[in-house]
Amino acid sequence: MLLWFESNGLHRHYRVALFLLLVQTKSSLRIEMLTRRRGLPRRARISAAHAVARAIAQTHWLRPGKRIGVYASMPQELGTAPLIDLAHARGCAIYLPRITSLRSRTMRFVRIGLGSGAEGTQHALGMHEPEGHDALSARFLDTIFVPAVALDPRGARLGHGIGFYDRTLAFRHLRHHWSGPRLVGLAYSFQVVPQVPVTATDVFMDMIVTERGIGELLAHEDRTVDLRSR
Helix H segments across 58-177? Predict the structure, then answer.
């Protein structure tokens, strides 16, 4: 029993060391991407937002009646205003995220009306949250457009490090067969990197869209996790 405990302790220290290295790597990548994103000219931001909306317009994701989750973009994120306008024009029901618990880092999605755009109350973390009471759990949406600091060809996503989307979408880990919602990561093309460090709690995207169009992702079996804790 003592030998098992010591061995388990060594293994645990090894795992902790790996985790700390992973956190450092994520932090470095996040700083690099946020710095590059801040330096993007306003004209390029506007152009990218419209290009992404045009690419999505060619898909079947925005059919009438579909429940669409989308973020209210902050100034440096890839803009979603053209996408929200498009989804409204297609007859979709639009839902924006609203934080339900800072402690558990979870969100629900609240429906916004036609013409309301992405306006709402600004949360302490900087995001704009919709008002209203018509809220849904993420699992009941058809497609969710997710903001990203970095993405890779596996669909691995790096966020701001707070974990709201990973916690809110954690139910995806319990599913053996994909049945929605479709998760679409939105980012500028320079934010798509060869590999994003991931842990077992990270939720993968099903698709990626940048101003260059819709990217092809690797097969699900190629979505390996850096820490073997799944």
Answer: 81-89, 164-168
